[in-house]
Specification:
Helices cover 19% and strands 43% of the residues. By secondary structure, it is of the alpha+beta class.
Length: 170
């Protein structure tokens, strides 16, 4: 059977392919997720996510090509990092493409590393995003995640990147 677009909006579309139903990004939009670790600290953001109905602790991230067709992943990641956190990177390096939830969405993201960070604004996002910026010592990631979870904050799966080794030691 061929895939059928059941519904399409500005950013996503719902597809039915045989017995499978899944969500895909519309218009070739991609995502970039930013790992910004420097001086033993990592930049995290906390923001309200409508699908979850609550705030979520995440790595900074943003869409590529949602406003400007042809924008590179690196340029988008640098722009999004500065908008969300107030830090401007000297360098953005791609760490590869990953799929976030392959049983439900076709979307993936490019993970990038941002280095040479310079604080240029307070961050916080644009258009009422109300992003809270956290600069967390890498050694305290697990305790910060646990504290946020206890407060009722959702935890993005991509934070496993920072928690992984500690969780395996179990």
């Amino acid at each position: 059977m061929s895939a059928e677009v059941v519904w399409e909006g500005k950013y996503i579309k719902v597809i039915k392919d045989g017995t499978w139903e899944y969500v895909s990004r519309a218009r070739g939009i991609q995502a970039a997720v930013i790992l910004a670790v420097e001086d033993g600290h990592v930049l995290l953001v906390e923001q309200y996510r409508v699908p979850l109905g609550k705030r979520c602790l995440e790595l900074p991230a943003g869409l590529v090509g949602d406003d400007e067709a042809g924008e590179s992943v690196e340029a988008s990641a640098a722009r999004e990092l500065e908008e969300e956190t107030g830090y401007r990177p000297a360098k953005i390096e791609s760490l590869g493409f990953f799929h976030s939830s392959p049983g439900m969405v076709s979307e993936g993201f490019t993970l990038v590393r941002a280095t040479g960070l310079e604080r240029v604004t307070d961050g916080g996002g644009v258009d009422g995003e109300n992003i809270t910026v956290l600069r967390v010592p890498v050694a305290e990631i697990a305790s910060v995640v646990a504290a946020k979870r206890a407060e009722g904050v959702a935890i993005d799966v991509k934070l496993l990147l920072l928690l992984g080794a500690g969780m395996l030691a179990g």
